[in-house]
Amino acid sequence: QVQLVESGGGLVQAGGSLRLSCAASVSGSFFGLSAMGWYRQAPGKQRELVAAVTSGGSTDYADSVKGRFTISRDNARKRVSLQMNSLKPEDTAVYYCNLHFALSDEDFWGQGTQVTVSS
Length: 119
What we know:
This protein has about 120 residues and is mainly beta. It has one helix spanning about 30; strands spanning about 5, 10-15, 20-25, 35-40, 50-55, 60, 70-75, 80-85, 95-100, 105-110, 115-119. The strands form two sheets. Strands 2, 4, 5, 6, 9, 10 and 11 form a seven-stranded mixed beta sheet that branches. Strands 1-3-8-7 form a four-stranded antiparallel beta sheet, with no helix packed on it. It is globular and about 40 Å long. It starts with a strand and ends with a strand.
């Protein structure tokens, strides 16, 4: 059973920073073979990809967060983090951690963490 537990959400003023973290309860080899990502969903909107990092360490970002957010992974600790700087009110959403295991094309999700940016 794959479990992903997010932490680090909260309320911050515009221009501030938050760091989200996601811990995966999987074997090290399983984590190492998985792509990890952060998605977000704002009220009334579809869930969207924010940032992703492949098993090889390549990263990808939504245009709206490029230059402000940084995704990183720690394979030894089976964690993925999202450093969010220069936050804007439009970044307000529930942020979800995602694990994609390519060998079986399976996706697993965390429970989500709320990020609220006040203007």
